[in-house]
Write a structure and sequence with these properties.
DUF454, YbaN family protein, mainly alpha, 7 helices, transmembrane, 2 domains, membrane, transmembrane helix
């Protein structure tokens, strides 16, 4: 029991800990660019069905930690992103509201794929991946 508590505490602290910036300015610039790209993709993922938002926000935190202290602190203190990151860091779970939003978004995406893409094998594979992600979200996260 103590081990699980210490792992949860460490992961919570790692999300909010002071970032260790990369030494090279080129690596920092690449990390800042990737963090910004992930923030944009995460925000687009809030609107487009099938594109994950949380995954990109989580990646943005990781890239920002290596690229910019200011960007990292903005992300981990953001009123929308921070609570989800904190809950994930504390208990490795996601809010039910996020799970429901993901389910609705992926369902719309699956229906659009079925109605518009003429390749049943490709659509079937993508829908199976979506189903696997949803099962993981609801039973593990």
């Amino acid at each position: 029991m103590k081990h699980a508590e210490s792992v949860a505490k460490e992961s919570s602290e790692s999300v909010h800990a002071a970032p260790q910036l990369a030494r090279s300015w080129i690596v920092r610039l690449i990390c800042i660019s990737l963090a910004c790209l992930c923030l944009v993709l995460g925000t687009v993922g809030l609107i487009l069905p099938g594109l994950p938002a949380f995954d990109f926000y989580f990646l943005a935190v990781l890239f920002a930690a290596k690229g910019s202290k200011r960007l990292h602190s903005w992300i981990v203190q953001h009123k929308v992103i921070a609570p989800v990151l904190k809950q994930w860091g504390d208990s490795r779970t996601l809010p039910v509201k996020l799970k429901v939003f993901s389910l609705i978004s992926m369902s719309i995406g699956a229906v659009l794929l079925i109605l518009t893409v003429p390749h049943p094998w490709a659509v079937g594979g993508i829908v199976l991946i979506m189903l696997a992600v949803q099962l993981w979200l609801w039973f593990k996260a």
